[in-house]
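Please describe what follows:
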Amino acid sequence: MSLQTKLTMSIAVIPALFVTTHFLSATSAPTPATAAGGPIPLKFNKIYWEYNASANDLGVHVSLDGEDWKSLEIENPLGKVIFEVEGSGPYKTYGMTELFFEGAEPSLDEVPLSVLLGKFPQGNYEFSGLDVSNHEIESVGKLSHAIPAGPQVLADIVGNSFLRIHWSAVKAPPPGFPKVPVNVVAYQVIVEKFQVTVPATTLSLTVSPEFVAALPKGVHQFEVLAIEASGNQTPRVPSSRSSRTSRQDRGARRRPRGRARRGSAP
């Protein structure tokens, strides 16, 4: 799975049905450059939660980008190393740049929320390592426990030609989560390999007939995510009304894997 507010839904594309899409993304600011001779900051680094409201599971994901680094570790606010990686062979000689990984997302029915949040305390996480010239690399990513609830999502077929997706504004955490202020800054709509980011003031979008016409026949997934200012995000399946609106949306509701740096906000 993955953590912003997200919705997964599938639609069957048929010749008479046309649809349109949009997408979103959330990011974290890089650490300011240090004085000459000091550690080199990463170009980009981010650590964030993703909560799946439908499956009730939660995990922490990481993405980063830097120049020719050969080793890297992440240290939590308590000073404990929670992740480390080191290249060997040509990766040690020439280095690496981008890295994205999803932490496992245990069910909160099996691992209590308080236990999981305790494993990843909020605060500054230090990213440090070495590049291929043995220069030190150092950046900081902030992890917050401000996790948004999933939006209520509906979909309507307009004039048998357009698919309109609309959702409710998210202004609070999910039930049972820490009661902290939540500031959703964007929503992301994903249809297959395409995605669009819209600001938090936008609560609907229309999928164009041209896009749908370009898709092969069959079942195609789309999803909507809500992204908090911290980068945390939450997925959620559509309501039953959405399913009734589009009778073609029967099919696998499993979330796609391998979404590199999905949900990064500018």
